[in-house]
Each structure stands twice: as structure tokens, then as C-alpha cells.
């Protein structure tokens, strides 16, 4: 598609005025399509004769029709939306799916207490009731679903949630292009349509600094989608450290997805290795360690100073840092439990309040070591009192070893007494209740881990608590046919 066509996709006020005049002309000449649009969108004219319309129709009627077709209740509101925003913080729609936006609203409700300063600032910036409130007042005040909806409506440039949802519904009904350049750019990014994306970016370079829903820039989204061609085009005209509404930067996104090459590219471009997201201490390194992404974690550790708490030291497998977390008498230092405000990368994991209780700190560290397959430090942590059956936050050491497909760690845990069939938690409250390591290995399609657990005697008949599914059922539900067939055959022996 040519650049000129992309320019026409944008809701420019001059174009809207021209379209309204053309529509008015069509109605005055009794054009069937124009009259059908009028009767569909403007109830005042629904049963009016063609000749009466020709004689009495006015420009404001055509403007009203155009506004309704774009999801706005009036021409002034469409006009205000089409004009350049005076607030650079306004975010742009990039997914025309109201269910997806509702999930973002729920995420704000769930993470308000734990997501850190960025989420609090989002509320303060866009909810009039909290405009002058302190952090403590925002955290203590009642905050409902309607409040979260208003935040997202105002952040997108709408006065109410109803207006936002109407616009989303209108976009979903329109043929492409939608009139939303950020959404069009994201669609090209998502479908790897590099020529379309680059043409749009060339026509409208300001898109590189625009912010989509939740404050995500195109660079942040390009990193999440692992689109190196887009990253290369965006880096020279973007701010590499622009964070979203949770403080999440492009480097966080690279760490979260274990994108080693992209992380190196961002570091070279000046990415901030100490930026915090989703709570205190939530640096890109910690985001990588949460998922056991040791490859990108090692790269990040080479370029930054690792946190001095025990879980980070364990996740990196650094004996010296681990030893520094203990006093001479074997007790934990205050630093061992510090900067642990980050404990989840998104609202899919439930709320939790980390404590400085020594047992929790030890158990947490053992889990983080198991995620990253740091077998060499497991004996030290176990001797210090870390429990093999602990479930400090959504997953035992063995369950996380299964999720991350860490065979050496799983073997060490079983050799030292871990219960292979222990039921525990993982993920959110609506899933991952009463599951075993075999359930998770099956769900993620980790055949080597599945075979290992079965060979070590895992009970194939154990059912998780929510849906009463066996590991075979989990493999089937999550689309892992190879694992499903293997477990089915093993159950028949």
C-alpha cells in the first residue's frame, strides 16, 4: 500500500469535514447509499420521505451521521478526538477488542496495590477524583471496576467508558484501514507486514513516540513480538527507555521473553538496566530471572550490578553473592530480603505480599535457583534451611523445574527427597490449583521432562483440583498431542 493511502487512513479533521460535505451532497441528491446511512444512524430521519430529506437536511445532520459511524455520540466529540491531543500522555487504541481492554482494566484493579509507582501515577493522571491524592490515599481509597474503566477511558481521550467502548465497536465494524494509525501500525507489526509498517512509519514518524493502550510504544510492542526489522527502524527515532504504565521498558520485554540478541541490541542503544517495573526491584534482570531465562539474565548481569538479595544471587548461581546474604552465625542479613517488591510480571499471577521472614526468603531463593537450573547452589540453600516442598509463590521448586524444563534440577530435587506427586499452585487463581510437576510439564509440552518424571515414578492418575484433569488431560487441553499420546500409552501399561 502506498504512503498516500496510509495518510488517508488517519482521522484528520479536514478529511472528516470533507466527508461530511460529501455525505450531505449525497443525501440532497437522493443517493441511495447516503440515505441509507442517514436512516441507520440518525433516528430522527428514519421514517422520513426522500423528498423531505432533500429539502430539510443540513450539514450538522451529515456530521452527526459521520460521528455515529465512528462510534461517537456527537460531531463535537468526533472533532475533539480527530484534533491533535494537547496531552502527550494520551494513549492510542491498538486492539479493537473490548474484551481485551476489559482484561487491562481488570489488571489495573488487581495490580493497583503491587505494581508500584507507575500504576499509581496512571490512576492519578487520569481519574479526576485522585488528581491531587497522595500515593497512600490512592492505595487506601475504594477503587472499583467503574473507577478503573474511567481511567482507561480518560487515558484514551474519552470522557466516559461508554464512549471508549462505542469507538472500539465502531472500529471493529469498519473495513481496514480503521482510521487509527497506531492500530494500523500494530496490525502490520503483528502480521510481520514490514513494507506496510515501514511505509506508515515513514509517513507518520511521530508514531514512534506515541503510546498505545497501557502506555506501550511501538518499540515495546516490536520487542514483545520479536520483530528485529521493526526494532531496527524504530530505534533511531524512538526513546529506548520509554516505559509503559507499569514501568515496563523494551529491555524488560526482551528479558521477559528471553530475547538474547534483542536485549544486546537494546543495551547497545543505551537501555536502562536499572529501570523498575511491577514493584520495587523489578529490573529487566529480575524479570528474566522470574521465568528462569538464564541466557538473557547472564547477559544483563554482565552489564549491571546484580541485586544483593538472596533470590537474585540464587537465580544467577553466584556462590559469593549467596554467602554475602548470610551472617557468620548463619542468619540472613537484611539485604537478603531487600528489594523484593517485584514478584510477578503481569496480573495473570495473583496478588501477594513478600515478607522478610527468613523461611520465605530461603524458600523463594531455592525456587529461583531451580528456575534457572543453578544446581551448583542448591546444596548451600538446602543446608541453610530452604524446603524442597515449599510453595512460596505459585510453584514449588520441582514445579518450576518442570515449567522451565530443567532436568538436572529435577533430578537433584528428587534425589534429595522432593515429593514427585506433590500438589501445589501455579499461575492464577482460576487455574493451577492442586497441580503437580507432571501436569505443568505436560501443559508446556516438555517431552524430556515428562519422560523423566514418568520414569521416576510420577503417578499418571493424579487429578488437579479445579477441573479434575490428569496430566494427559492437561496435555490434550493445551494442544500437546505428542505428550498426550505418550501419557495415554504409559497409562495403559
What does this structure look like?
The strands form two sheets. This protein has a two-stranded parallel ribbon. The protein has a two-stranded antiparallel sheet with strand order 3-4. Helices cover 53% and strands 2% of the residues. The model is unreliable at 1-10 (pLDDT under 50). It is elongated, with a radius of gyration of 27 Å. The protein starts with a helix and ends with a helix. The chain is mainly alpha-helical. α26 packs antiparallel against α27. It is built from 29 helices and four strands. The longest helix is centred in the first third of the chain and has 16 residues, at 13-28. The chain folds into three domains: 3-82, no CATH class; 91-157 and 172-286, Serine Threonine Protein Phosphatase 5, Tetratricopeptide repeat; 305-492, Ankyrin repeat-containing domain (Serine Threonine Protein Phosphatase 5, Tetratricopeptide repeat).
Amino acid at each position: 500500500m502506498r504512503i498516500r493511502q496510509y495518510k488517508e487512513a488517519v482521522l484528520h479533521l479536514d478529511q472528516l469535514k470533507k466527508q461530511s460535505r460529501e455525505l450531505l451532497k449525497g443525501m440532497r441528491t437522493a443517493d441511495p447509499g447516503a440515505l441509507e446511512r442517514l436512516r441507520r444512524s440518525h433516528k430522527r430521519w428514519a421514517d422520513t420521505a426522500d423528498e423531505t430529506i432533500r429539502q430539510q437536511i443540513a450539514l450538522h445532520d451529515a456530521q452527526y451521521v459521520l460521528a455515529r459511524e465512528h462510534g461517537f455520540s456527537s460531531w463535537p466529540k468526533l472533532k475533539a478526538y480527530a484534533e491533535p491531543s494537547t496531552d502527550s500522555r494520551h494513549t492510542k487504541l491498538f486492539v479493537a477488542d473490548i474484551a481485551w481492554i476489559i482484561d487491562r482494566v481488570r489488571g489495573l484493579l488487581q495490580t493497583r496495590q503491587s505494581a508500584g509507582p507507575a500504576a499509581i501515577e496512571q490512576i492519578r493522571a487520569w481519574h479526576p477524583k485522585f488528581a491531587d491524592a497522595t500515593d497512600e490515599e490512592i492505595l487506601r481509597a475504594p477503587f472499583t471496576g467503574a473507577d478503573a474503566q474511567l481511567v482507561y477511558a480518560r487515558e484514551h481521550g474519552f470522557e466516559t467508558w461508554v464512549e471508549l467502548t462505542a469507538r472500539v465497536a465502531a472500529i471493529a465494524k469498519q473495513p481496514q484501514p480503521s482510521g487509527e494509525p497506531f492500530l494500523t501500525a500494530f496490525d502490520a507489526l503483528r502480521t510481520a507486514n514490514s513494507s506496510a509498517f515501514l511505509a506508515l512509519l515513514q509517513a507518520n514518524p511521530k508514531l514512534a513516540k506515541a503510546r498505545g493502550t497501557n502506555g506501550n510504544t511501538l518499540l515495546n510492542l516490536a520487542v514483545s513480538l520479536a520483530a528485529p526489522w521493526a526494532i531496527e527502524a524504530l530505534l533511531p527515532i524512538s526513546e529506548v527507555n520509554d516505559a509503559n504504565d507499569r514501568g515496563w521498558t523494551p529491555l524488560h520485554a526482551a528479558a521477559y521473553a528471553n530475547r538474547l540478541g534483542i536485549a544486546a541490541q537494546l543495551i547497545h542503544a543505551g537501555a536502562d538496566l536499572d529501570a523498575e517495573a511491577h514493584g520495587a526491584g523489578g529490573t529487566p534482570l529480575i524479570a528474566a530471572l522470574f521465568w528462569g531465562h538464564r541466557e538473557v539474565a547472564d547477559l544483563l548481569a554482565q552489564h549491571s550490578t546484580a541485586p544483593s538479595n538472596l533470590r537474585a544471587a540464587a537465580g544467577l548461581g553466584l556462590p559469593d553473592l549467596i554467602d554475602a546474604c548470610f551472617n557468620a552465625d548463619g542468619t540472613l542479613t537484611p539485604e537478603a530480603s531487600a528489594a523484593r517488591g517485584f514478584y510477578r510480571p503481569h496480573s495473570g499471577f495473583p496478588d501477594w505480599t513478600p515478607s522478610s521472614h527468613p523461611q520465605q526468603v530461603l524458600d523463594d531463593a531455592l525456587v529461583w535457583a531451580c528456575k534457572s537450573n543453578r544446581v551448583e547452589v542448591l546444596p548451600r540453600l538446602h543446608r541453610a534451611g530452604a524446603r524442597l516442598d515449599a510453595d512460596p509463590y505459585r510453584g514449588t521448586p520441582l514445579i518450576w523445574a518442570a515449567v522451565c524444563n530443567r532436568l538436572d534440577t529435577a533430578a537433584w530435587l528428587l534425589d534429595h527427597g522432593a515429593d514427585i506427586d506433590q500438589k501445589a499452585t501455579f499461575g492464577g487463581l482460576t487455574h493451577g490449583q492442586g497441580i503437580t510437576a507432571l501436569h505443568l510439564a505436560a501443559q508446556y509440552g516438555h517431552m524430556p521432562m515428562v519422560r523423566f518424571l514418568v520414569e521416576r515414578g510420577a503417578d499418571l492418575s493424579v487429578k488437579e483440583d479445579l477441573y479434575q484433569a490428569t496430566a494427559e488431560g492437561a496435555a490434550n487441553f493445551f494442544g500437546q498431542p505428542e505428550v498426550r499420546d505418550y501419557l495415554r500409552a504409559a497409562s495403559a501399561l
